[in-house]
Fold this protein.
Amino acid sequence: MKTRPVWHALARQGASLARRVGWRAALKPLLGLAMIAALTTLIYVHLDYYQVGAVMEQFRPGLPAPHEIRANGDVTIVDLDETSRLKEKLASEVPPVYEYDRTALEEARSDLKILFDALFIFSDEHDALLREKHFATATVAYARQTPPRAQASLRSLARGVLETVMAADARVEYEAMEQRALNLLRARLPEPDSVNLATQVVRGVLRPTWIVNETLTEKAREAARATVEPVTQTFRRGQVVVRKDAIITGTLLQQLKQTGLLTPAPITRVAPIAALMFLGVLALGLYLRAYCPTVYARHRKLLLLAMLIITSVGAQMIFGANQALETPVSLIALPAGAMAIAGLLGVQAAVVSTLFMVVTAGLTAHHQFSVVLLATGASLAGIMAIGSIWPASRMVPAVITLIVIDFLLLVFTIGLLPGTASSALLMNLGPLALSATAGGLGATIVAAGAIYILARPFSITTAYRLMELANPNEPMLRRMMTEAPGSYHSSVMVANLAEAAADAIGGDMLLARAAALYHDIGKLKRPAFFVENQAPLGVENVHLRLSPKLSYLILISHVRDGEELGKKAHLPEEILTIIREHHGTSLAAYFYHRAVSEAGDQSVSEYEFRYPGPRPSTRESAVVMLSDSVQASVKALKEPTPTRIEHMVREIIDSRLADGQLDDCGLTLRDLRVIGEVFTSILSGLYTYTRIEYPVLKAEGTRERGYSHTESTPAPSGVSAAAPRH
């Protein structure tokens, strides 16, 4: 029988374990391992090991070696200094490569004509040229006294001598050319004055015809350098390569790094980094599990967090490597990542991620302490500013504040660098201000772009998305305005109450407002079956002809219908949750009491007339529930006064609390008191204000009594006999 390999059995056991545990349970560990691997790789590639440790433990050019270095095997060290010296010695012995200058003779002929013209023709310009060429006055006078025929002969003779001397095919030194020209002139001119004149003219225009070709010369010298064999020294295992306190030269340091004598073996290098990253990722995961459960519970959010951390750290390591501290890289890479995390996943996750990112990126930074301090301060300032970039009117002050903080951080961190003079720091305030401006603007633009691009793919609800949804021009709201006007206007009132209450207790007021606007969209399916829409639509109360149980089923169906419409409209999950929970498991009291009165002696179970739930699970969901209940009940009050409104608000909140609807939402008794005060204040201002009566002018100018256009319509007496709004 053929036996299967061991790995096959292990694979089967692993697959069986995965099926029992579930693949989703393995996603978090796999994501953590991927994050550890990515960060370990980044650090391994960018960490300069010869600078690891305290300054006194580092090998630096020009300083004594802090300890001796022994060969960990057979090591060959190239003596770069001696090799370079031998190469330069051999290169210096290579003669220059010359080439014939074909323009030299033409230029000499032109200069010769100009010089003879200056000698034979009087003008101020010619005299200036002769003084520049250092012609004696006697020589100039002799030339100008020479007859024209003799001048022409002298020109022709000098030109011939010049062409003879400069037309040589073989290279001749300049001194030899000059001497030959002098000999030719002496042989052909009988008079010493003529010889002297012609000699001075020829010397003034004579030039070398062979020049050095620098390119060919350098190629010849490079070829000579290439023939030099490197000077090497071989060390056996255990031999001392560098003794303690020996002065480290730049070339020796380079050789030590290239041979790996300053760095441990790869596995020894990877293990500490991987262990450090494991501890960091583990601590980050435990913090998220304890304090950011909404992030930890969703794999998409964890994946997004890992992507942002790796991208930010990688950008800092890649673009910030060997960069000066005042460059804006440290003000953009990590702060932009922190701001994006804050905008997408919350401030708590952003703060702890910032600490993790700056420590990780600081491991490979040149100025480790300064980079960590600068990036931490800029990132925390960016986290504070990210909440103010929406709406746009608040963005400019937030960005200006961020730039100012970045500038102060730059000045402080650069001032901490050793050797930084205060005068030099003051002179660099302008460039530092520009760097801070670029950093603040760059981080804001990158973070805002990342938030806008990544929010929808990862199903994250941002402040910008919530403000979009709260716009009355959104298709769903416009549809409600026309098809279910009563429900729409009630939702607007609920949104006002919910927004103010959430703000008062420190909740998410944008989420509360947006969710309140959409909480009753399910009524779009059967708008005429809800009392607030019957008058605007001009229909009668159909519930008068239906049984209480059927009316109850129609009533509670708007929750399920609203969730389905919300999913089709791609509403955020947070809003869908509030749509599902905004009635909790509360009692449809009106239809329950109708059922009881119609049942006579038969018992009617209260649970048959309750909403299916679930109960509110967040503070914002509870606020929307209370706002919805309070708005409907107070609107039905007869002659509402501040006292009656306050009593009604308190009664509704207490009834929801006693019914257990607020058990899972996290609201405290203090929160409920504050919410009640906010509701009372808003509703009292809405329903108890008075307006003066305005007189109406007749056409002929007489007055008759009339009413203000804005005077409120009196509330109905008691609770309407029609089905109440739930």
Observations:
- DSSP finds 31 helices and eight strands in the chain.
- The chain has a mean pLDDT of 83.
- The first strand starts at residue 69 and ends at 70.
- The longest helix spans residues 266-291.
